[in-house]
Amino acid sequence: MLKNKILITIIPITILFSFSGISNANAKTVNMVHTKKFTKNFAQYKKLAERLSKQGYVYSINKGSSFGTNTYPVVQYSHKDTQLVINKKVRFKVQHIWSYKNGTSVNLVSKDKKYNAWVNFPSSLYNIHSKYNDLKPLVSFAKKIFYKKVKNNKYNLNKLRKMANNIKSTKERKLANHFVSQFDHFLLKDRSFNSLPDLLIGNLY
């Protein structure tokens, strides 16, 4: 796997912190254990984290995701809390994206500040707009282009743009056109995490 590149077949990335049995009381917060070597791992995706963070509380957790505390080592939240967060589609805001060796994780905080967590990036979270009825067909067709189930050519990219322009809601049409612009750049110029379109996050699996 080429460093920083997304392959056509994407394999879910394993979270790099150990889920240990230590108590929350004994776990140090990530801020307490920062070192030059540790913080260097945030720099790689700093711009991406800032971009996603500006969007606010628009991310939720995918089913089957590992969901751990913002501590070092990470302590996994209980099954009850994890299921509650997933089933109620609790909304999160991105704070940091952390990379080390062959794994990438994202630090999220919930709107009510109850959960400050780490999950795998990009498989474990999704942008809530990607589940909107008017935007789902757009995301689905983009995935077909990405996985070469339809030809990656000018005709299909124009078809994707036409689908976006045909959305009636002004708000969702704006989101759709922004997504298409992101997707064109990602597909044709830079297939890296830093250019991953918002609505494809967590939806390429």
Characterize the structure shown.
By secondary structure, the chain is an alpha+beta fold. The chain is built from six helices and eight strands. Helix 4 (136-146) runs antiparallel to helix 5 (154-165) and helix 5 (154-165) runs antiparallel to helix 6. Residues 1-27 and 31-35 have low confidence and may be disordered.
Write a compact overview of the structure shown:
The protein is built from six helices and eight strands; from the N terminus they run βααβββαββββααα.
Features:
single chain; two-stranded antiparallel sheet
Q: Work out the helicity level.
A: 25-40%
Distance between the termini: 17 Å
Q: What is the spatial order of strands in the main beta sheet?
A: 3-7-6-5
- Residue-averaged pLDDT: 83
Q: What is the string of helix and strand elements?
A: EHHEEEHEEEEHHH
Class from helix and strand fractions = alpha+beta
List the quaternary state of the chains. Answer: single chain
Count of runs of 4 or more consecutive helical residues:
6
Strands, total number: 8
The major β-sheet equals: 4 strands, antiparallel
Tell me the fraction of residues in β-strands, as a range.
15-25%
Question: How big is the Rg?
Answer: 18 Å
Give the overall shape: globular
SSE inventory with pairings:
Blueprint: E1 28-29, H1 36-43, H2 46-53, E2 59-61, E3 68-69, E4 71-72, H3 79-87, E5 92-100, E6 103-110, E7 116-120, E8 125-127, H4 136-146, H5 154-165, H6 170-188
Antiparallel strand pairs: 1-4, 2-8, 3-7, 5-6, 6-7
Helix pairs in contact: 4-5, 5-6
